[in-house]
Amino acid sequence: MANLQLRNIKKIYPHSNSVRKGKGAAERKTNLQVTDEGVVAVQDFNLNIDDKEFIVLVGPSGCGKTTTLRMVAGLEEITAGELYIDGVLMNDVEPKNRDISMVFQSYALYPHMNVFDNMAFPLKLRKVDKKAIRRRVQEVAKILDITEYLDRKPKELSGGQRQRVAIGRAIVREPKVLLMDEPLSNLDAKLRNHMRTEIIKLRQKINTTFIYVTHDQTEAMTLGDRIVIMKDGFIQQIGTPQEVFDHPANRFVAGFIGTPPMNFFSGQLEHDATGYRISVEGHSMELPMDKQNRLASRAVQPQKVTVGVRPGYLSLGETGLSATVEVTEMMGSEVHVHCTVNGKDVVLILPTIEKDGQHFRAPEVGEKIALDFNGGLCQLFGANGENLEGKS
Fold first, then answer.
1. 45: which of 9, 13, 87, 174 fits an S-S bond (Cβ 3.0–4.6 Å)?
2. Which domains does the chain have, with CATH numbers?
3. What digits encode the pLDDT tens for the residues 122-180?
């Protein structure tokens, strides 16, 4: 159990010799900031993590989330800023003295050891009594439902079983902080779903602070108490899963969180004595009072905007945005309708069963339809991509 504070954390990777000499600099493919010192992988990272909280760092590949995790673990040097665990500065503390365990993407099990010895290894390093080791390994194996595999070698286990062993080895010594670096990425979709549930159950059984890294926003939404969304080394937004879904701070967050991703339309925000309205593709609507108040409190002026609407918030209407159906995907309880609106791809999600229990007739390919949406459920982004209503 521990609380952590990451204050103005920064990580710079120095240039290689070839880059210093000017060779290959033009070939560098990165969205990260490049300075004279090197490539800035993480910039101005500030986060307070409460005791027993489950924090998820999420973002596309190369955004700096794993680098941040490795700095917490002590596997990467912190270029600037301060890391505190339970109020103690950890910048120069050796990894073995931070009371942190880490679960890697590759499991990192010892192939010549059986499951029991793999899990017992951290305790043996600490010279824990043999009886205590056996008792603790048995307790953790029971929690993870791997007791029957204790005598097996890793090569005799499935991917999901190996991942449980890796988690067991990490928690057997009851660390203050458990770090998990994309632990489910090597599993198939069905097993990933199952292991997500197992991690949620595990979290309820052990008193540990979790920091979990993933590029999968579904994992982030289902696991985290709070989500830290990153891009190009910077934090874009910190909030609960519901907060970042309902009130994304900017267009990047809005497009990254949610499956299928949010639809974006070009629009115009209008304002007169009666209040705010939006116009999208010739379809005009008033905004509800709570949205009007938030815009008014920030003195938002009429301007061109990007209007974001989630696929589940679009509906078929008598009037609305003119669309042509391109593809329909039957998903069982719902159908995903892919269509074009003025040349732009748009997705809407429709239920396959109506309220009266009757099956819903999905639009056919090539059919002309009208899309409508509730103005209270849309998001408005300015020219800089920021949400015009501010943070949640």
1. 9
2. 4-16+29-248 (3.40.50.300), 255-353+363-381 (2.40.50.140)
3. 999 889 999 999 999 999 999 888 999 999 999 999 888 998 899 999 999 889 999 99
